[in-house]
Amino acid sequence: MSVGNARAMAMMPTGLHRFWILVPLLVLGLLDLSTLSRSHSEAEDSALYIVNVTNGDDLYHPNHLLFGPLNRIHYLVWEAFGYGGNATVPMQVLSVLASLISAWLIYRIALRIGVGLPLALVATGWACFSFGFWVYSLEADTYLLPMPFLLWAILLLLRFASFADTGRRTVLRLAGLGAVVAVAALLHQQYAFVIPIIAITFVVLWQRDPERTVPPLLRAVGVFVTVAVVITAGAYLLVGRYALGLHSVSEVIGWSRGHASNGLWESLSTKTPLLLVAGFVRSIFSINFLFHSPRSADVMSRVFAGKSLVEERYLAEHGISTPAFVAIVIAMVVAALATLWLVLRLARRTPGPELSGSDDGPRRRFTGFATVYLVISALLIMIWEPGNLEFWIAVTPVLALLLAVLLSRRTRVVAAGFVLVGALFVANLLGAVLPYSQSDTDYWSVQNKGFREVARTGDVIVTDCPYVCRGNLALMTDVLPIQASSDDVDQLQAALGTRRVLVSSWAFTPPPSTEAPAGGGAVRKQLSDNRSRLVEIGRSGDQVIYELRSR
């Protein structure tokens, strides 16, 4: 596409711009709704989230305070209109809606920063068809609901005109920016870091102003930070005091730390940078196809020595056909070539003409924010859990937009950009979205389906398998299992004589897992002491199901 044609497309009427994105969004929405995840082996937290939202239990998780209540309200609305299932579909539909709104906002931001219509579509496609963004759009997990608020905050930031403007409208925009960021942080604590990131961005933008003075900067940062912190902290204090019964600010602060109260999930080491790169790559492309070939599966087993890969192997074997595997490999090769071409174009010293004649202010504000956001986000992910692709989901849209900005100054990039979008679509559709939409590709669903057939309301289940397995079992039976490696003997003892106790053979011989034992194994010891009272009542995959009968 020539620069002249690109400029002409960039200057098309706004209504026609909307048409270009609305049709893809409609198609994507229909595709998403027809491929909602039925296997939760990737988004392993989602199973327990579904159970909690369905039953109204443990809704106020400190790491994503509003996620549970929002989904619970949404689920109750569905029930009011006659819906009779659990919260799986309502929660997934909410994630799909959040992803579509996010796609619309990515597109709007791209046009606002002047990259032109073609690259706006490309940036939207890069973000929406990346593995992490797309797969979690179809899940009942926490990572998509905050995304529209992050992108809305970016749009508000782009409308910030000048530090010298102290009018009522500017103050309201700053307050609105703080409120939007606070909502994102309350939906997931990862976004709490957007507060200092935007404050730093204000400083960066202020330094570029030749007529800068300190008071306007302090006023802008002060209004934004005050509103964001007051709303965020106020929500935690209210929930802590009135929903959880905490009695002091220190108790609320301790509770609000959530997972962070246990320290870093992984210690920093020489392999941390490699894990960081691996987490980022996995957030872009699914690697499930690598387990389709026995030879490559063996290589992956050596690379990830000590980690059980039974879920990935099972999904690749039962969810990725040989033609799909070939198509994925071709798509990956095409993606690599398209990426190489775009990198070479970016490396050119002499940029091409601008693709849009729009004001350069929004572009400069966005590049300032994006640079700070990406650097700080990468550092935080590296420190906290570098190999976790989930934290990269929040990075993907901003990175896609920044790349679009940089590429908009180069020629002969649009075609390669669309080729990369197509490669992402094919690879992640065939390698993840379609396999996850089938329950028979989920290893733990196959292993636990026997419990669904024999478990009844009020039963107690004792097993000892990985976290994702226990979540799957709870979702299938509506019974949160007791871990045999734990010391929860009081819970087991209370059930004896009053409720039916089902025991998996995994309680005695657990499947391979890298998880640490839940305790000293007091529950397993008590079961072993009463093994003569165990009566086999069924099978579930590789498990034998026993009932612990009374004396």
UniProtKB/TrEMBL annotation:
InterPro entries: LipidA_mod_glycosyltrf_83
UniProt keyword terms in alphabetical order: Cell membrane, Glycosyltransferase, Membrane, Transferase, Transmembrane, Transmembrane helix
Main localisation: membrane
GO cellular component, as recorded: plasma membrane
Membrane-spanning segments: 89-107, 119-137, 143-162, 174-205, 217-239, 324-344, 365-383, 389-407, 414-436
GO biological process terms on file: lipopolysaccharide biosynthetic process
Membrane topology: Multi-pass membrane protein
UniProt GO molecular function: pentosyltransferase activity
Location(s) in or outside the cell: Cell membrane
PANTHER family, A to Z: MANNOSYLTRANSFERASE YKCB-RELATED, MEMBRANE PROTEIN
Protein name: Glycosyltransferase RgtA/B/C/D-like domain-containing protein
Source organism of this protein record: Tsukamurella strandjordii
